[in-house]
Specification:
This protein is an alpha+beta fold and 193 residues long. Helices cover 24% and strands 42% of the residues. It has a 12-stranded mixed β-sheet.
């Protein structure tokens, strides 16, 4: 009888946790639906900079010596120190860590999720479903009370990738030209398209 009670209790807890995770993911996705563009400060290990995002997988990431830009069709990687630009076709698989669309829509759709409250944040843990081929073993997304991503930790091997986001500015009306890149004069251009 006691084993039956414990099994039933665990079943209820897991059911509530799955429901809370679904609700948390849905709230995050709904917030994202209303975002046409955004900018935020980010930090990853010893790097920090600014990320800009616009619908249709446009992004611009500015670091002290590196600028990464995508208009959703082409990507540019500009190394200021070497004065070198690498141009490539946009590839969803290699750009997914910069894509809010991938993190907020595709990852949850292809993963099992759980959610727990921690202070004013909700931590959504995503574990790839069997045969999902996600390229990571788990991803945790810290979401603020106003449904903005504060931190992402992606486990893929020994060194997890951790990105923290802050200082959001939403719907600033960023023009498409902000997501295009013209190589500086005299820079070495390597076009891989």
């Amino acid at each position: 009888m006691f084993k039956y009670f414990i099994s039933m209790l665990l079943g209820i807890i897991f059911s509530i946790n799955a429901q809370n995770a679904d609700e948390s993911v849905k709230a995050l996705q709904n917030k994202f639906n209303g975002v046409k563009d955004l900018s935020a400060s980010f930090r990853q290990d010893n790097m920090s900079g600014t990320i800009y995002f616009k619908k249709d997988n446009m992004y611009r990431i500015e670091l002290s010596n590196l600028t990464l830009v995508s208009d959703g069709k082409t990507t540019w990687s500009y190394n200021k120190k070497e004065n070198k630009v690498i141009v490539n076709d946009y590839d969803e698989t290699t750009s997914s860590m910069f894509s809010f669309n991938s993190i907020i829509r595709e990852y949850p759709a292809r993963c099992n999720s759980t959610a727990v409250k921690e202070g004013n944040s909700t931590i959504i843990t995503l574990t790839p479903k069997k045969n999902a081929k996600m390229g990571f073993t788990s991803a945790k997304i810290w979401v603020s009370s106003d449904n903005l991503v504060q931190k992402i930790v992606i486990e893929k091997g020994k060194n997890p990738l951790q990105i923290s986001l802050s200082n959001y500015k939403i719907n600033q009306n960023l023009g498409n030209s902000h997501f295009n890149f013209t190589p500086p004069k005299g820079s070495k251009i390597i076009d891989l398209r």
